[in-house]
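Entry for calcium ion complex. Fields follow.
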Amino acid sequence: MTDRPIIIDCDPGVDDAIALMLALGSPVLTIQAITTVAGNVPLSLTQRNARQICELMGRFDVPVYGGCPRPLVRALVTAEAVHGHTGLNGITLPEPTLPLQRQHGVSYLIEALQQAPAPVTLATLGPLTNVAAAIIQCPQILDAVAEIVIMGGAVTRGNITPVAEFNLYVDPHAARVVFESGVPMTMLSLDVTHQVLTTPERLGQIRAIGTPLSQVAADLLTPYGASDRQQLGLMGAPLHDPCVIAYLLQPELFTTYDAQVTVETDSPLTLGQTVVNPQRAAALAHPVQVADTVNAPGIYQLLQDCLATTPAAAP
Ligand code: BDR
Ligand code: CA
């Protein structure tokens, strides 16, 4: 899995930023490009934040594209209460010199997949607007997708409504397009990411690594998740998006089961809910692989190894 080219679609976002650090610091993942989308904060900030993280990691070779500035149908809902007004609450990075690519992120996705010599893995960390728009414009690109690994959805309970997870809620129509596309897909829902919490002990271990990168990660993760703790009663902040990168690096950290996943797009009460039905899996050519459990210490070990060994271009 790790030698496949990967395109990361994201909306940084504190946990997106940690995921990008994990991905960009990995010597075994081939990150072909980053596309950005509106989500946690508006697109003008998510694309800038992605470029700042690339520079922090010394990855001037990874092109960053700006995609859709709003969901397909609904008005944009953002999450400054979780990620701060810049999207990277807790740190201030220099204005990036890495340019934003001129090409639109959706047109890049289409072109990259049309020209791909080998199947590409899509790692999605935000609302699925860019991927859905690319599929709508050019469905043939699905032939070039090896797998989509999605942070999104909720099996038992949501975080922005009682039943919906943020990424799915922000653009449920896009999510529906992607989940109905029939490509091999792995879903890392809140049921898994809520098992990967930043305890004070884990934060202390990250800070104690003592590298410039570990300080940035600790500064990001310290204020992050206060609202999740208050509103959802979690004991720490969930590392949602890093689970996608961890899955690409070490899928054995997760257990999964197959299911049909349907996205609610009509009911105002349950908009963006993922209805997960394992009983229907056998009837489908490509059921969704739904993650079930995760080895949380294993995820933190991956992150700590990355922060300890990546020579950062520190701010
Ligand atoms: C998801 O929503 C965003 O706030 C996070 O970055 C993550 O992708 C969790 O619901
Ligand atoms: Ca995200």
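NOTE: The chain has a mean pLDDT of 95.
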